[in-house]
Amino acid sequence: MKFMKEMRLVFRRLQVAGYKLQVTSCRLQVTSDQLIRTGNGLLATGNLKLLFIVCVVLSFSSCQSKKHELPIFGQREVNGTDTVYHKIAPFKFVDQDSAFVTNDTYKGKIYVADFFFTSCRTICPIMKTQMVRLYELTKDMDDVMLLSHTIDPEYDTVALLHDFAKRLGVESKRWHFVTGVKDSIYKIAQTSYFATAMEDKTEPDGFIHSGAFLLIDKQGRIRGKYDGTKEEEVNRLVGDIKKLKLE
Q1: Residue 22: which domain range?
Q2: Residues 27 and 120 occupy one common structural domain
Q3: Tens digit of pLDDT for each residue in 39-56?
Q4: Which of 36, 78, 94, 151 is the most interior residue, by most CB within 10 Å?
């Protein structure tokens, strides 16, 4: 950090010396009307060395910043100089402790969302094993939470979700299991999280849903989508959470 501040001071000194510098798309462009200068406290040779150092350090910094930036999912609208991104729509559900859970519950938090049902015999048990792993791997991250929506609210009552969470050994302050009006859950899955969640009588358990884990940032925007049935995908998710914490 101190080194970068010093490099930026050098950057400004060169600008004062008559050099025009601009960092664009991982490149540092340099132009000057006078390559040889004296009397300004910087010899031409020193200037050239400084230019080389600034090119390397600031260009590397610019490229690294872009490399680690996570994408933002969904449509976006340009409003003048501002860009409005897709966000999770307002919601209000009830969790395993009979408490209301809304967008405000996750205000200023990074969270991971998924869709499941407790009687699922296919991918849900695998997903919950991986979500428990995620819960443990992020236990020291105070700004990271989890959110699991049941897609079978008629069967998955508050009491049943409470017992389910208890069996997993997790706390509601970090991981909310929510239920609510079926149509509201399906709608938010499909239109906000871009995830599949619906009834399908042709399926063995009567439902079809995505096995995705969705990474949501502190502004309510989707920043990543991962296969919740694969350990390597969840490992990648943990890495992306760490990147997101640095934004």
Answers
A1: 2-68
A2: no
A3: 444 444 455 454 444 444
A4: 151
